[in-house]
Amino acid sequence: MSAPPAPEDHYRAGLEAGELRYQWCTDCAAPVFYPRVLCPGCGGTALEWRVSGGAGTVYSATVVRSRDGARGVVLVDLEEGFRMMSRVTGDPEAVAIGSAVTLRVDTSGEAAQAVFDPAGEPS
Amino acid sequence: MSAAWRGAAAIVGVAESDLGRVPEGLSSLDLIGQATAGALAEAGLGTEDVDALYTTSAYFPMSALVTAEYLGVRPRVADGTNIGGSTFVAQAVRAAQAIAAGEVEVALICYSSTQLSDGGRLVTTNRPLSYEGEFSPRFPISMFALATARHMHEFGTTREQLAEVAVAARRWAQLNPKAYARDELSVEDVLGSRMVSDPLTVRDCCLVTDGGGAVVMTSAERARDLPQEPVYVLGGGEATDHANLSQMPDLTTTAAAVSGARAWETSGLGPADMDVVQLYDAFTINPVLFLEDLGFCAKGEGGAFVADGGIAPGGRLPVNTSGGGLSYCHPGMFGIFLLIEATRQLRGETGARQVAGARTALVHGNGGALASEVTAVLGTADTL
Ligand SMILES: [Zn+2]
């Protein structure tokens, strides 16, 4: 039997396959993100992989200004109860805290990334 | 119940190295040498007396070894812990506990950086989590910007209130001959300066300077025979709840709520007892969060607390009387300078910025992106 893939490798493979994977601790019934080998809530190792439905809410947002222009950085709370850093597509200055966003796996770059579209807009 | 080690150890010597932009060629170790020589001289002690060395460095992973060699000390305790800018406050508390236990006789806490001469970039070997780094936040400012934006969203804190933190720091700095930035600064200046990571402008950020500092501690008993008025460590506490910002449980409440509660418990004192307050102000949001979390005001009321000159000279609470990291100096990590200023205030030697009759001081250090929070309470002999 081969060893299971490293947590980050399994996460990145999920993105390449178009899905946002996270873990669920079956000991304390809580989501775990970022992926690891033990639950930071209870120390247990009974983690199973799940796939996020992709519905989220912007928890906080900033716009990083540089010579190359402006880029948005956000924290998104996923419906499944975990939080991640990401960006929202479109105008970074238009991103409001509390607004609904929807997952889009962006495969245009070197590595696939979990980014978010403003909810209700065509993707 | 206050801690068994309350008042068992005292700060007996403090000094800065050259600050600002130091002469070309001086290394970070040279600056530590300057600060250490100064602090030991005013303590009436020599390097041969030091049996515990506490330091950290952006340049040397084994900082305690390199520093001990440079200074010519042979410590029984060589501690190069790095929990960010809060490190030195934590080391002062740990040294006080070790001195109280009889394990250490004379502790030297020291730090320096030549980050301005190095080119003005934050020198760090710290790496963000890949899950965050892939979105290219600007470290560390974007982390504090995200916390600021959330605080504004939840509590209605305004950019004008945050700007008042920078203006208050500048007004204190104008009373401190050693401060790096002493020219006039208005709320309008802060609001109108270059935006770096919304809602924080370059004037919401701490300085980038060279500089170093040293603090010498020994037992209360030995301190009474030394030249300086001893400044006693009355209590303290540490708390850590994340490293990367996405893992912080609530961006508007820091682990200072935990470290502060421990500091109040160990010292037997509370916010209303503090005469002067030193809070690590890497960004203007920091003092707002810490004033709330340490209990100087209710959660969400930090903006109103700092408004209308609330923490400026003549305000409701003297905060960051040196000018802080925003206007006095900021060589990468600021924690050691919080201890130095608090000590000088309690000795009554700070001239135009002296808080009259100050007997108690709160020192609060932050490490990383609101990740490590360390609080210490210091006091004069009549607070024992
Ligand atoms: Zn668990």
From TrEMBL, chain A:
InterPro entries (alphabetical): ChsH2_C, ChsH2_Znr, NA-bd_OB-fold, Thioester_dehydratase-like
Residue ranges occupied by any ChsH2 C-terminal OB-fold domain in the UniProt entry: 49-105
Segments forming domain ChsH2 rubredoxin-like zinc ribbon: 12-48
Name of the protein in its database record: DNA-binding protein
Taxonomic source organism: Marmoricola endophyticus
Lineage of origin: Bacteria, Bacillati, Actinomycetota, Actinomycetes, Propionibacteriales
From TrEMBL, chain B:
Pfam family, one: Thiolase_C_1
InterPro entries: Thiolase, Thiolase-like, Thiolase_C_2
Thiolase C-terminal domain sequence ranges: 237-380
Superkingdom per UniProt: Bacteria
A GO molecular-function descriptor: acyltransferase activity, transferring groups other than amino-acyl groups
Alphabetized PANTHER family for the sequence: ACETYL-COA C-ACETYLTRANSFERASE, NON-SPECIFIC LIPID-TRANSFER PROTEIN-LIKE 2
Protein name: Thiolase
Phylogenetic placement of the source organism: Bacteria, Bacillati, Actinomycetota, Actinomycetes, Propionibacteriales
